[in-house]
Amino acid sequence: MSRTLHLNAFLMGVGHHEAAWRHPGTEPVRLTDVRHYQELARIAERGGLDSVFLADGVALSGDVRHNALGGLEPLTLLAALAAVTDHIGLIATVSTTYHEPFHVARKFASLDHISGGRAGWNIVTSAGEAEARNFGVERPAHATRYARAAEFLEVVTKLWDSWEDGAVLADRAAGRYADAGRIHPIDHAGDHFSVAGPLNTSRSPQGHPLLVQAGSSEDGKEFAARHAEAVFTAQQTLREGQEFYADLKRRLPAHGRRPEDLLVLPGISPIIGSTEREAHALEKELEELLIPAYGLAQLSRMTGLELTEEHLDGPLPDVPAENEGAQSRRRLVVDLARRERLTVRELIARLAGGRGHRVFAGTPEQIADQLQEWFLCGAADGFNIMPPLLPGGLADFVDHVVPELRVRGLFRHEYEGRTLREHYGLPRPPSRYATTRPEPVAVS
Amino acid sequence: MSRTLHLNAFLMGVGHHEAAWRHPGTEPVRLTDVRHYQELARIAERGGLDSVFLADGVALSGDVRHNALGGLEPLTLLAALAAVTDHIGLIATVSTTYHEPFHVARKFASLDHISGGRAGWNIVTSAGEAEARNFGVERPAHATRYARAAEFLEVVTKLWDSWEDGAVLADRAAGRYADAGRIHPIDHAGDHFSVAGPLNTSRSPQGHPLLVQAGSSEDGKEFAARHAEAVFTAQQTLREGQEFYADLKRRLPAHGRRPEDLLVLPGISPIIGSTEREAHALEKELEELLIPAYGLAQLSRMTGLELTEEHLDGPLPDVPAENEGAQSRRRLVVDLARRERLTVRELIARLAGGRGHRVFAGTPEQIADQLQEWFLCGAADGFNIMPPLLPGGLADFVDHVVPELRVRGLFRHEYEGRTLREHYGLPRPPSRYATTRPEPVAVS
C-alpha cells in the first residue's frame, strides 16, 4: 500500500468545543463514566483509526464553573479501554517534570503488556504554574524542563531495555525462570536522576511504547527531532503546516534519523454536516452556547493579558513578550487574530473549537479534501481528530469521513497489524543491552 | 445478617507458593497476560469475595533466575480488571515513600470512578534498599518513612475531599458546570509536602477509596489504628493472631474509633484437597519443586544472615538484632523456626508457601474449620486468601470452601452492595470541607 494517513481520535470529555457540555448531543455527567470512553474507543476502532489519545495536566486549570473539568487520569483510563478493545492504539500524556522515571517506565510497560503492544506516551513538560503548586516547587524554567525531559526519557528507555527479548525462559524442568544475563541494571547517574534498575516489569510487546511529543517551541522541536516518533501540533493554515512539517523533518538527519522515522500529525476539529448548511448551523449553535466570561479567562491565560467584557468587540490588545509559558501557542493565537483582523469575541469563538487547533466545518467530502490537501502538500502525515461533540462527532467522522478517505485510497480498510508501532509503520526498537552470546543449553 | 467473614483473593502471579511457576497446574508465561488476571478476578467475583488484592514493590527483588518475577504494575492492572467485573473490590499496593500524593490521590480517585466505587489502597512505606536505589535516595529510616506516610495520607484524603459531593451541577441551561464554592484548594504545607489542590478529578463514588495497611511493627500498628480501615497481617498461630487482633482493636478508642471501624485480615494459603491425603500430596509435590538456592537467598534477605547450602540441615543460626528493615516479619520467621525446632531446609519449605503467612493443607471442611475458629475466637474479621497455585487454587477455594462457609452462615450468598466499602460494611466518609449553605437556584 502506498503512503496513507494516520488518524488518532483525540478524546476530551464530551467534546473539544468549549460549549460541548451544554449541547443537547452530549451528556456532561459522563465525564467520569468509563463506559463513555469505552464507547468512544470502540467507535474509533470500528473506523480502523490508529489510536485514541488523551491529553492531561496535573492541576485543575480553567474555570470549572463554566466547563466540564475534573475527569479521569489517562493511564488508568487507558488500561480500562485496553480491556474492551483489540487493535486501537492507546496514547496517554504524562509529564516528565512532576513524575519519577521508574514509575512512568513501569506503567507504560504494563499498559503495553495489558494492551498487547498498543501503548504510546505523549511526553509533556508541564508549563503551568498551577501544576508546580501541586508538587511544592517553583515552576522550573523552560530549558530546565527540557533538560530534565531528555534525561527522564533516557532513563525510561534504559529501563524498558533492561530486560532483553528472550530474558524470560520459563523453563520449568530446569528450574530457570529467567536468564539473569539478559536482565541488566541500568546504573544511571545523571544531573536529575540516579536510577539503578532493572525494571521490575519484563520487556513489553513493543519493546518501547511509542514516543509522542507536542511542544512546538525551539526546544520542543529539537526534542521531537531527537526523540519523538510522532508529533502532535496545532497549525492554522496550510502554509504554516508546511513550514512546520519541513522544519521538523529537516532536523532529523542531524540525529541520524530518516524523515519517515517521525510522523507529523496536526490537530483538526471537524464540524461535520450532511450539507455545508448543516455544518455551519452546528458551528453557530455551539458558538451561541459559549459563555463569554469563560472565553475571556481562557484567552487571558493564553496571552498573559487581562481581558474583560470591555475588550470583547475590539481588536486583541498588544501581548507582552516575556511570558515564558506556552510560547508557541501564544504566537499562534496572536497571528490568527492579526491575520484575520478578528475582534476578541470572534477570536474567542475561533479558539473555542480547538484551543488553537484548526477548526473546519463542512461536509464529509470537504473535510476529506482538507485532510487530503494537507497530506499530499507536505503539511501532515496524518491528523489528530478532535471532534467538537463526543460521542456524536467521532461517530460522524468514522461513519462518513473515513469511508470517503478509503475510497480515495488514503486510509486503511482494516488493521494490518496488532501494535501501535505496526499501525504507524514504525520499527520495534531492539534493547540497547542486547547480548549475542548463545543461550546455554538447559539442564535439569 | 450477623457478623460474617470478609475474604480477599490475594493475587500473585501464578500462585503464592515459590514453586508455583514450576507446577504443571500453572502457565508461568501468563505472568504478564492480562487475561490471566481477568480470569482470576472473575473467579473471585463468582465466589462473592470482597476484593482482589495486589502486593507491590518498586524494585526487582528476589532472584529472577528461580522465580516468576517482573509482572504488571497493580493500579494499571486493576483498571483493566475493573472493566470486566461488576462487584469485586480492587485493592492496589502503592508506596508513600517514592510517590507524590497528588498523583496517588488522582489515580485512586480515577480507579474508584472507573470501577463504580471498588478501589482500595494498601499503603506501604517500602522498606527495601533496592527500591531506594531506583529513586536516587538513601533508604529513609523507619520513623521517617512512617512520618512521611502519615502526612502523605493527610494530603491524599484532603485532595479526595477537595470536591464536595454535589459540586458537579452539569446545569446546561444555566451554563453552570460546577459550583466553585464546593471545590476547595487544600493549601497543604507540611514537613514533607506542599500541595495547593484542588484535585483535578471530581469526588469519587466512595468519597475515599478504602485505606488498607499491612505493617506489623509498632509504628505500623499505630499507623493502622489511626488511619487504616483494614489490616493485612501474617500470623502463624491462633494465639499470635488473637494477640495481634486484640492489640490493634485496643488502640482504636484513643483515636476516636470503634473496634468495627478496622477489619483485621490475616493471610492464609490454603492447600486444598478432596481428601487430606490429596492436600498433603499437593503440598509435598510443591515442596519437591523448590530450588534450595532460592530459598536460602530469600531466607538470608529476611533474616540478615548469610545462609549457604551448608546450613540446610542444621538449625537457624542466631539472627543479628540491628537489621531495621522488615522487623516484624523477621521475628515471625525466627519464632517459627525456634518454636517448631525446624532445620533451615524445613523452615524454607514452611516459608515457601506464604513468605511467613500461614499455610494450611486440608479438605475444604478442614479449611473452613480453621477460618471459622480464627473468626469466632477473636483472631480475624476475615482473611486474605493466598492460593498456592493460580488460577486452580482460587477456583478450588471458591468452588469448595466458600459453599461450606455459606452453609455455616459465615459468608454472604451474594453481594448486597456495589462498593468495596459496602462489602466491608464501612461507612462512606463525608468531605471535611462540606458546606451546608443551600444551593442557589439555577437561572438561565
TrEMBL record, chains A, B:
Specify the Luciferase-like domain's residue ranges: 22-375
**Transmembrane residue ranges:** none
The region called Disordered is annotated at: 422-444
Keyword hit for Oxidoreductase: yes
Q: Kindly give the InterPro entries that the UniProt entry links to this protein.
A: Diverse_substr_monoxygenases (IPR051260), Luciferase-like_dom (IPR011251), Luciferase-like_sf (IPR036661), NTA_MOA (IPR016215)
UniProt keyword list: Flavoprotein, FMN, Monooxygenase, Oxidoreductase
Q: Which Pfam families match?
A: Bac_luciferase (PF00296)
The record, for SUPFAM superfamilies, names: Bacterial luciferase-like
The UniProt family comment states: Belongs to the NtaA/SnaA/DszA monooxygenase family.
Q: Which named protein is this?
A: LLM class flavin-dependent oxidoreductase
The species this protein was found in: Nonomuraea maheshkhaliensis
Classification of source organism:
Bacteria, Bacillati, Actinomycetota, Actinomycetes, Streptosporangiales
